[in-house]
Amino acid sequence: MNSLLPDSGKVREHSSGVSKKLPDEMHLQALWFAGQMGREFITVDGRKVRIVQFGHWNHSAGPDFLHAAVEIDGELLSGPLELDHRASDWEAHGHAVNEAFNEVVLHVVFAPDSSDHYTRTADHREVPRVCVPYSVLCEALDLPFLEVANAHPGRCFQPLSEMDGSHIDSLMLGAARHRAQIKARRRKRTIDVAGEDGWLWQAIAETLGYRPNKLAMTLLAQRLPIDMLKGNPESAESIIFGAAGFLSAEIHDRAAADSRDYLRGLWETWWQVRDDYEPVPERAIPWKLSGIRPVNHPQRRLACLARIVSLWKEFSRICLTTSGAEPLSRFFEELNHPYWNHHYTLTSKRSDKDLALLGPDRLRDFQINHLLPVHLEADRPAAWEYYQKIPAPSLSEKVDKASIRLFGDTVRRKSYLKKAWQHQALLQIYQDFCLRDASDCKECPFPEQLGQWRG
Known about the structure:
Layout: H1 25-33, E1 40-42, E2 48-53, E3 56-57, E4 65-72, E5 75-86, H2 89-92, E6 106-111, E7 129-131, H3 134-141, H4 157-161, H5 165-209, H6 214-223, H7 226-230, H8 236-243, H9 251-254, H10 260-277, H11 298-310, H12 312-321, H13 326-333, H14 360-377, H15 381-387, H16 397-407, H17 411-415, H18 420-432, H19 446-450
Parallel strand pairs: 5-6, 6-7
Antiparallel strand pairs: 1-2, 2-4, 3-4, 4-5
Helix pairs in contact: 1-6, 5-6, 5-11, 5-14, 5-18, 8-10, 8-11, 14-15, 16-18
């Protein structure tokens, strides 16, 4: 499949520039801390940099990460690390006159400025600065050239309509494998920084966040490493809810009567440790609560995370050694919580319904995006057989547009929307070709490559 799908690590430069594409700093910080931008860099003045330790999230005011270790031209430096959109933010944000930034060992930025800027501390020390290359940033962000491609048959429609079905199957399977390989590479980068348990912890947290709160859940998982929580199992649930920003002294009075005992238990633990974990307001987790179905409320997702912590050894074993659905499905079917089995939020009244902590859709998403790439990379035949049997999730806008561009409104289109792996294949082709072509198909290489494709 490599002959058709370009290496995702080779990203072409884009004339429109980076500024319009950069997400907020918390998003960039989460990707950096997950190792998705790598360890090796060059400072703006040409020195080699290697990130030895990524440090820890700072929950207080000051630099973004504490206790980092970086090697610059062979010299090992330890101290805080600061991330900004661009070099000029150092002055604009007041870091140059703030003594809390005097010990910063590296300033990381993501877009060049139009003029020269210097990163200097209040005691007039120049701080080494790295500007993350645009190609690295694009890969970490999975950043296409276009936000969306028009939903009409593309130039690839004709050669695909003339192609034998077995060749299309081979093409699509190759695209699905290629997408799984990309996910496996991202996993390796996070393991390099956080270890296998750290990767799995961030992966399940991201899945529980789904679209609205994917970043929020990832940030929480990074700020509360699984190794730390495993060492404090009796306090883990209180720490998770407190660090997430959902516990306060006033919440008890707002809660329904049958929620107060549970809240009292959480608070009695949280108030003793809150100084160690509670973020200052500007570092608060950015939860999105509007438009969320009650059963999918982030507080229920946090309860699920807390229960997983208490059963981490079993959860990790199942995830990393079994490729089928049954063991993991059974794990989550048996995952119970005396409060959250019948409550939507920390302050809600008891529901007569029995509420599952994780539904089948999220479990399938977890397997496809995180677990199956592990087993496929290990070349386990049972994993590939299982992957091809997973039914398709609900049709997303991107999958819908991709299928129309490739197959038009035909019977063949519908045949490639039935399985989850087919959706993954369509997403990868859409990402690697449709969203990388600003000519609306005219200059896309995919149609010509299809003419040479023979499986």
